[in-house]
Amino acid sequence: MKKILLLFFVLILLTACEKKYKYVEIVREQSVLGGSSIKEKDEQILSAPSDSAAYLNAFSKFSISQKVYSDMRKKGMSEYLDIPIGFRLYNSEGVDISDIDFFTKAQQEEEIVAKYMSMDNVVGSSKSDSKTETECSRKRSRLCKNKRTSPIFSSEER
């Protein structure tokens, strides 16, 4: 019984150490009519033991958004995408802590950016996928014409 109470107490302490934060990404929304506007996306709840840990978590989320946008732009798919331009981080009292300063902030930001920007393109190649799909369709068509069978069945099933 004492072990169960002790375990329960430790779990409460561990969960009590995590604070809640609100992450809001700021984007430039591209209009179909040619203009753009700044807007805030829906907030996300983050948990972290400290303000600096929450900031680094938020900065990582923002860096991922920038990486995805960058990769989609390289693939020519960014015409109407929202452009990530910043973020806000609010603590549990609703105070904006986006400009928090701590000793290793610049170094850790650089490491996060390097980590995500050095990754391979995260966006699939639409041209090669459609080319493969077209080639497959052609092969199936020839197979259907030559064998007079359905493309649904493989050669082993016939």
Q: Report on the biggest sheet.
A: 4 strands, antiparallel
| Proportion of beta-strand residues | 15-25%
Poorly predicted runs of 5 or more residues = 126-158
Query: DSSP helix count?
Result: 4
User: Can you give the mean pLDDT?
Assistant: 77
The portion of residues assigned to helices is 40-55%
Structure, described:
With 158 residues, this protein is of the alpha+beta class. It is 47% helix and 19% strand. Strands 1, 2, 3 and 4 form a four-stranded antiparallel β-sheet that branches. The longest helix is centred in the middle third of the chain and has 24 residues, at 51-74. It is globular and about 60 Å long.
Write the layout of secondary structure elements.
Layout: H1 2-17, E1 19-30, E2 36-40, E3 44-48, H2 51-74, E4 83-90, H3 105-117, H4 126-147
Antiparallel strand pairs: 1-2, 1-3, 1-4
Helix pairs in contact: 2-3
Summarize the structure.
The chain has 158 residues and is an alpha+beta fold. The C terminus is likely disordered.
List keywords for this structure.
disordered C terminus; alpha+beta; about 20% strand; 4 strands; 4 helices; about 160 residues; 4-stranded antiparallel beta sheet; about 45% helix
